[in-house]
Amino acid sequence: MLEREEIMAIFRRTGVLWEGHFVLTSGLHSGRYLQCARVQQFPEENALLCRDLAARFKDQGITAVVGPAIGAIIMSYEMARNLGARALFTERENGVMTLRRSFTLEPGERVLVVEDVITTGGSVKEVIEVVKQYNAVPVGAGVLVDRSGGRADVGVPVQSLITFDIETYKPEDCPLCRQGLPVVKPGSRQQ
Ligand SMILES: [Zn+2]
């Protein structure tokens, strides 16, 4: 199993974790910024993380892995490779999460749901609902980063590689502002 520091090192190296002084889309300030998708630029690092996470779901009879597009497509594929399972992804159709492209699940099939980051667990829950519509069995959820502090309840056991609490501050209370550090607005939306 990868140690927390090894995972942090991969996140720093691949640009997932930025440290400095940031203003988030919420307007709050933070000393850390996380953009999980960036690890997917690096197949070797991404494979390393997925192999570690998949190992926690071995011997559970999983035959399909499903994640929500776009963020979890590559992750689903890597996880499925490790588990000897099929890799599927859900998409939104008129706002509703669904399996398209003739993807299907068998009744009773044991399914792992994956997502790169879990915060409230909303998208994971939506994918679990899709799995249930096929009378398949969602046996668990695998996420790279848990930003809920382990509090997200999605109705199935959640395994994460790492739990992350990112402290945020109102601009007027920000200790980094007080230190006079220049504030950076990351280019893309916060997860
Ligand atoms: Zn600040």
Overall description:
This protein has helices at 4-13, 43-54, 73-83, 122-133, 175-178, and strands at 17-23, 29-34, 64-68, 86-93, 96-99, 110-118, 137-146, 158-163, 168-169. With 191 residues, it is of the alpha/beta class. The chain is elongated, with a radius of gyration of 18 Å. The model has no long low-confidence stretch (mean pLDDT 93). Bound molecules: zinc ion (ZN). The site of zinc ion (ZN) has 7 residues, from helix 5.
Q: Topology of this structure?
A:
Layout (H helix, E strand, L loop, with lengths): L3 H10 L3 E7 L5 E6 L8 H12 L9 E5 L4 H11 L2 E8 L2 E4 L10 E9 L3 H12 L3 E10 L11 E6 L4 E2 L5 H4 L13
Parallel strand pairs: 3-4, 3-6, 6-7, 7-8
Antiparallel strand pairs: 1-2, 2-9, 4-5
Helix pairs in contact: 2-3
The site of zinc ion has 7 residues, from helix 5.
Sum this structure up briefly.
This protein has 191 residues and is an alpha/beta fold.
Strand order of the largest sheet: 5-4-3-6-7-8
- The oligomeric status of these chains comes to single chain
Shape: elongated
State the total count of DSSP E strands.
9
Considering the chains and any ligands shown, give keywords for the structure:
single chain; 191 residues; Rossmann fold; three-stranded antiparallel sheet; elongated; binds zinc ion
